[in-house]
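Ops channel
N.P.: pipeline sanity check, posting one input/output pair.
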């Protein structure tokens, strides 16, 4: 198992440009299994990134709903609406 973790760490450093691994670059070109592992890890990073983005968007939506439904913020909301509804 430790070998697997070391391999994942090496791929991560390579993908994040923390380490310029000529050995890994060569292995990627010559060994289909290494190439596949690198591509899988790239895909996983993109999925994790998208999941994080979705969590942030959901939090923003919840905050927006709370803001617009809270009575004490209604005067501010009306003021903002008046600014944008004024005809020039």
């Amino acid at each position: 198992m430790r070998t697997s973790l070391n391999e994942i760490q090496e791929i991560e450093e390579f993908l994040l440009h923390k380490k310029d691994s000529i050995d890994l670059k060569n292995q990627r070109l010559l060994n289909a299994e290494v190439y596949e592992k690198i591509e899988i890890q790239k895909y996983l990073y993109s999925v994790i990134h998208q999941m994080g983005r979705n969590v942030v968007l959901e939090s923003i939506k919840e905050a927006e709903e709370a803001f617009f439904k809270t009575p004490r913020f209604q005067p501010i909301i009306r003021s903002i609406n008046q600014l944008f509804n004024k005809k020039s």
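N.P.: looks fine end to end. The chain has one domain: 2-85.
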